[in-house]
Q: What sequence folds into this?
Protein backbone atom coordinates (compact mmCIF):
# COMPACT_ATOMS: atom_id res chain seq x y z
CA UNK A 1 0.00 0.00 0.00
CA UNK A 2 2.83 2.43 0.91
CA UNK A 3 4.61 1.63 -2.35
CA UNK A 4 1.47 2.38 -4.39
CA UNK A 5 0.88 5.68 -2.55
CA UNK A 6 4.52 6.71 -3.02
CA UNK A 7 4.36 5.83 -6.73
CA UNK A 8 1.16 7.84 -7.14
CA UNK A 9 2.68 10.87 -5.38
CA UNK A 10 5.80 10.68 -7.56
CA UNK A 11 3.65 10.59 -10.72
CA UNK A 12 1.60 13.59 -9.53
CA UNK A 13 4.80 15.46 -8.62
CA UNK A 14 6.29 14.70 -12.05
CA UNK A 15 3.18 15.97 -13.82
CA UNK A 16 3.09 19.19 -11.78
CA UNK A 17 6.80 19.82 -12.20
CA UNK A 18 6.64 19.19 -15.93
CA UNK A 19 4.04 21.93 -16.22
CA UNK A 20 6.44 24.37 -14.56
CA UNK A 21 9.19 24.21 -17.16
CA UNK A 22 11.45 27.25 -17.70
CA UNK A 23 11.43 29.26 -20.91
CA UNK A 24 14.48 29.41 -23.16
CA UNK A 25 14.77 32.66 -25.13
CA UNK A 26 11.10 33.30 -24.31
CA UNK A 27 10.02 29.83 -25.48
CA UNK A 28 9.28 26.69 -23.50
CA UNK A 29 11.96 24.11 -24.27
CA UNK A 30 10.35 20.63 -24.40
CA UNK A 31 13.74 19.05 -23.68
CA UNK A 32 14.00 20.96 -20.42
CA UNK A 33 10.68 19.92 -18.87
CA UNK A 34 11.71 16.59 -17.40
CA UNK A 35 11.39 16.02 -13.66
CA UNK A 36 15.21 15.98 -13.44
CA UNK A 37 15.45 19.39 -15.13
CA UNK A 38 12.86 20.81 -12.75
CA UNK A 39 14.68 19.29 -9.77
CA UNK A 40 17.93 20.94 -10.94
CA UNK A 41 16.05 24.24 -11.16
CA UNK A 42 14.73 23.88 -7.60
CA UNK A 43 18.22 23.10 -6.28
CA UNK A 44 19.47 26.36 -7.78
CA UNK A 45 16.87 28.31 -5.79
CA UNK A 46 18.98 27.92 -2.65
CA UNK A 47 21.69 29.94 -4.39
CA UNK A 48 19.36 32.64 -5.72
CA UNK A 49 20.22 35.98 -4.10
CA UNK A 50 16.71 37.37 -4.37
CA UNK A 51 13.45 37.12 -6.20
CA UNK A 52 12.68 39.19 -9.28
CA UNK A 53 9.97 41.83 -9.37
CA UNK A 54 8.09 42.19 -12.66
CA UNK A 55 5.46 44.78 -13.54
CA UNK A 56 3.07 44.22 -16.46
CA UNK A 57 0.39 46.39 -18.03
CA UNK A 58 -2.18 45.21 -20.58
CA UNK A 59 -5.85 45.20 -21.53
CA UNK A 60 -8.32 42.32 -21.30
CA UNK A 61 -11.11 42.17 -23.93
CA UNK A 62 -14.18 40.27 -22.69
CA UNK A 63 -16.54 40.07 -25.68
CA UNK A 64 -19.95 38.42 -25.24
CA UNK A 65 -21.57 39.75 -28.42
CA UNK A 66 -21.19 39.18 -32.16
CA UNK A 67 -20.19 36.16 -34.24
CA UNK A 68 -16.89 35.54 -32.42
CA UNK A 69 -17.44 36.01 -28.68
CA UNK A 70 -14.42 35.49 -26.44
CA UNK A 71 -16.59 34.58 -23.43
CA UNK A 72 -19.63 32.31 -23.42
CA UNK A 73 -22.20 31.32 -20.83
CA UNK A 74 -21.98 27.64 -19.94
CA UNK A 75 -24.33 27.40 -16.96
CA UNK A 76 -26.83 29.20 -14.78
CA UNK A 77 -28.97 28.40 -11.76
CA UNK A 78 -32.75 28.25 -11.97
CA UNK A 79 -32.87 31.53 -9.99
CA UNK A 80 -30.29 33.40 -12.11
CA UNK A 81 -32.82 35.12 -14.40
CA UNK A 82 -34.64 36.55 -11.35
CA UNK A 83 -31.47 37.69 -9.57
CA UNK A 84 -30.40 41.36 -9.84
CA UNK A 85 -26.77 40.19 -9.66
CA UNK A 86 -27.22 37.22 -12.07
CA UNK A 87 -26.27 34.98 -9.15
CA UNK A 88 -25.28 31.52 -10.38
CA UNK A 89 -24.29 32.38 -13.96
CA UNK A 90 -21.00 30.83 -15.17
CA UNK A 91 -19.00 31.99 -18.20
CA UNK A 92 -15.90 30.48 -19.78
CA UNK A 93 -13.46 32.84 -21.46
CA UNK A 94 -10.54 32.94 -23.83
CA UNK A 95 -10.12 36.73 -23.84
CA UNK A 96 -7.32 38.43 -25.76
CA UNK A 97 -4.75 40.42 -23.78
CA UNK A 98 -3.49 43.44 -25.71
CA UNK A 99 -0.90 46.19 -25.35
CA UNK A 100 -3.52 48.94 -25.70
CA UNK A 101 -7.31 49.21 -25.28
CA UNK A 102 -8.06 49.29 -29.01
CA UNK A 103 -9.54 46.06 -30.45
CA UNK A 104 -6.78 45.94 -33.09
CA UNK A 105 -3.96 46.51 -30.59
CA UNK A 106 -1.11 43.96 -30.57
CA UNK A 107 -2.10 40.72 -28.81
CA UNK A 108 0.37 39.52 -26.17
CA UNK A 109 -1.64 36.60 -24.81
CA UNK A 110 -5.03 35.55 -23.52
CA UNK A 111 -6.98 35.19 -20.30
CA UNK A 112 -8.27 31.61 -20.18
CA UNK A 113 -10.57 30.42 -17.45
CA UNK A 114 -13.98 31.08 -16.01
CA UNK A 115 -15.92 33.57 -13.98
CA UNK A 116 -19.13 33.10 -12.04
CA UNK A 117 -21.52 35.48 -10.30
CA UNK A 118 -21.03 34.43 -6.69
CA UNK A 119 -22.78 37.21 -4.75
CA UNK A 120 -26.47 37.77 -4.15
CA UNK A 121 -25.97 41.29 -2.72
CA UNK A 122 -23.75 42.94 -5.33
CA UNK A 123 -22.15 42.02 -8.66
CA UNK A 124 -19.15 40.08 -7.39
CA UNK A 125 -17.50 37.54 -9.67
CA UNK A 126 -15.44 34.56 -8.63
CA UNK A 127 -12.60 34.55 -11.18
CA UNK A 128 -10.26 31.66 -11.80
CA UNK A 129 -8.04 32.11 -14.81
CA UNK A 130 -4.60 31.96 -16.35
CA UNK A 131 -2.91 34.81 -18.15
CA UNK A 132 -1.27 32.89 -21.00
CA UNK A 133 1.48 34.95 -22.64
CA UNK A 134 2.20 34.31 -26.33
CA UNK A 135 4.47 37.19 -27.31
CA UNK A 136 7.83 38.65 -26.37
CA UNK A 137 10.07 37.53 -23.53
CA UNK A 138 7.16 36.01 -21.57
CA UNK A 139 6.03 33.81 -24.49
CA UNK A 140 5.03 30.40 -23.13
CA UNK A 141 4.72 31.59 -19.52
CA UNK A 142 1.56 31.89 -17.43
CA UNK A 143 0.22 33.58 -14.32
CA UNK A 144 -2.62 31.98 -12.33
CA UNK A 145 -5.30 34.05 -10.61
CA UNK A 146 -8.06 33.13 -8.18
CA UNK A 147 -10.07 35.86 -6.54
CA UNK A 148 -13.16 38.03 -6.13
CA UNK A 149 -13.90 40.72 -8.68
CA UNK A 150 -16.51 43.29 -7.55
CA UNK A 151 -16.86 44.58 -11.11
CA UNK A 152 -18.46 47.96 -10.33
CA UNK A 153 -15.67 49.06 -7.99
CA UNK A 154 -13.16 51.41 -9.59
CA UNK A 155 -10.18 49.18 -8.70
CA UNK A 156 -10.33 45.44 -8.03
CA UNK A 157 -7.43 43.51 -6.54
CA UNK A 158 -6.98 39.88 -7.56
CA UNK A 159 -4.32 37.64 -6.03
CA UNK A 160 -1.76 35.89 -8.24
CA UNK A 161 -1.24 32.43 -6.78
CA UNK A 162 1.38 30.96 -9.09
CA UNK A 163 2.78 30.74 -12.55
CA UNK A 164 4.90 28.80 -14.99
CA UNK A 165 7.85 29.42 -17.27
CA UNK A 166 9.43 32.78 -16.42
CA UNK A 167 6.91 33.10 -13.59
CA UNK A 168 7.70 29.96 -11.60
CA UNK A 169 6.61 30.19 -7.96
CA UNK A 170 4.97 33.55 -8.69
CA UNK A 171 2.93 35.51 -6.21
CA UNK A 172 1.56 38.98 -6.54
CA UNK A 173 -1.39 41.23 -7.30
CA UNK A 174 -3.34 42.00 -10.47
CA UNK A 175 -5.25 45.28 -10.22
CA UNK A 176 -8.20 45.58 -12.61
CA UNK A 177 -9.92 48.78 -13.71
CA UNK A 178 -12.76 48.88 -16.24
CA UNK A 179 -11.75 50.86 -19.32
CA UNK A 180 -15.06 50.50 -21.16
CA UNK A 181 -18.28 48.58 -20.50
CA UNK A 182 -21.27 48.23 -22.83
CA UNK A 183 -24.35 47.66 -20.66
CA UNK A 184 -26.37 46.44 -23.67
CA UNK A 185 -23.99 43.73 -24.90
CA UNK A 186 -22.04 43.05 -21.71
CA UNK A 187 -18.76 43.58 -23.62
CA UNK A 188 -15.95 45.01 -21.50
CA UNK A 189 -12.36 46.12 -21.89
CA UNK A 190 -10.49 45.98 -18.60
CA UNK A 191 -7.10 47.51 -17.84
CA UNK A 192 -4.74 45.37 -15.76
CA UNK A 193 -1.68 46.43 -13.79
CA UNK A 194 0.20 43.36 -12.55
CA UNK A 195 3.03 43.25 -10.03
CA UNK A 196 4.54 39.85 -9.40
CA UNK A 197 7.44 38.33 -7.47
CA UNK A 198 9.10 35.27 -9.01
CA UNK A 199 12.47 33.55 -9.44
A:
Amino acid sequence: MRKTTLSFLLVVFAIVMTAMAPPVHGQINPDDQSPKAVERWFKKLGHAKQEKLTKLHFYFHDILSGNKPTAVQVAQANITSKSPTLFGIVNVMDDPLTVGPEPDSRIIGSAQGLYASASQKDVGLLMTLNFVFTDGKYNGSTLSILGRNPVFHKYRELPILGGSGVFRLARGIATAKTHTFNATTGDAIVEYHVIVMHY
Observations:
- Residues 100 and 113 are 21 Å apart (CA to CA).
- Helices lie at 2-18, 35-45.
- Confidence is low (pLDDT under 50) at residues 1-28.
